[in-house]
């Protein structure tokens, strides 16, 4: 089972693209290390307070894949400098 998510976020404290990249790099690296998932910025690379993150996980069981994705989304929510505004999930 493959599940992917497109997560739109706002980074309120970013004052430049460099600041945005620092926040995103920290979050994406921790997501990859904690949950062994693929993470990438998909859109809004030129905007310094907005981003779209893509997350993909694969598992032999649908329940495990969904649990991993929910844990990753909860993990994103735990960062005070970023707010998740919209999330689109897709199962393959």
TrEMBL record:
<dbReference type="Pfam" id="PF04456">
    <property type="entry name" value="DUF503"/>
</dbReference>
<dbReference type="InterPro" id="IPR007546">
    <property type="entry name" value="DUF503"/>
</dbReference>
<protein>
    <recommendedName>
        <fullName>YlxP-like protein</fullName>
    </recommendedName>
</protein>
<dbReference type="InterPro" id="IPR036746">
    <property type="entry name" value="TT1725-like_sf"/>
</dbReference>
């Amino acid at each position: 089972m493959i599940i992917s998510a497109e997560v739109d976020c706002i980074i309120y404290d970013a004052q430049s693209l460099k600041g945005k990249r620092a926040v995103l790099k920290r979050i994406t690296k921790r997501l990859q290390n904690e949950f062994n998932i693929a993470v990438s910025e998909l859109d809004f690379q030129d905007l310094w307070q907005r981003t779209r993150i893509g997350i993909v996980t694969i598992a032999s069981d649908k329940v495990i894949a969904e649990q991993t994705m929910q844990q990753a989304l909860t993990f994103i929510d735990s960062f005070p400098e970023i707010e998740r505004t919209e999330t689109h999930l897709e199962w393959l």
